[in-house]
Fold this sequence. Notes:
- With 181 residues, the protein is of the alpha+beta class.
- The chain has a domain at 46-166: CATH 3.30.1330.80.
- The chain has helices at 6-16, 33-38, 67-77; strands at residues 55-62, 82-100, 109-114, 118-128, 131-139, 144-149, 154-166.
- Strands 1, 2, 3, 4, 5, 6 and 7 form a seven-stranded antiparallel β-sheet that branches.
- A hairpin with an 8-residue loop joins strand 2 and strand 3.
- It is globular and about 45 Å long.
- The chain starts with 5 loop residues before the first helix and ends in a 15-residue tail after the last strand.
Amino acid sequence: MAKPSLPLVSALAAVLGLGLGGQASSPPPAETAATVADRQGPAPPAYTMTAPVTRMVMIRLRNGTDVLEGLKQGVAEQGIRNAVIVGGFGSLIRYHVHVVTTQELPTVDGFVKVDRPQDVLNVSGYVIDGRLHPHITLADQETAMGGHIEPDTHVLTFLNVALAVLPDDASLDRFDDWQWR
């Protein structure tokens, strides 16, 4: 079998995101000048950005821990400014969440507090400039529920949450800005 030519290998490496030395190529910039300028006007139907993941951080909360306080502590301890909460699982003693209750903007939040054990099916959200925006999906034997995590949500067995940390300059500030429309 003939050896592949160097241009073919280079093209394949570029498609796979590899340099010829086997190292990952440079990631795209977190934002371009055009992206920043786009945020000055009305929101496009779909706003996108790319950013490299600088590291993964796993946070484990123990029995009795307030979820919001535990996540804030973990984010501060790890010096995380921007991140995507990519998943989480565990169980809760009780939960407190808010959900939207209206179809108009600004929305009206409805608060739900339940004092019974629940399995955590997932945790998702963002860390934006050090500020948490976490959501949770829960279930018991009869129903599933979810919403924005509020104080007084407490861990039963444990809660494991994984965060994909982004560069400090990866601006996520528009991703939860309901007024940018």
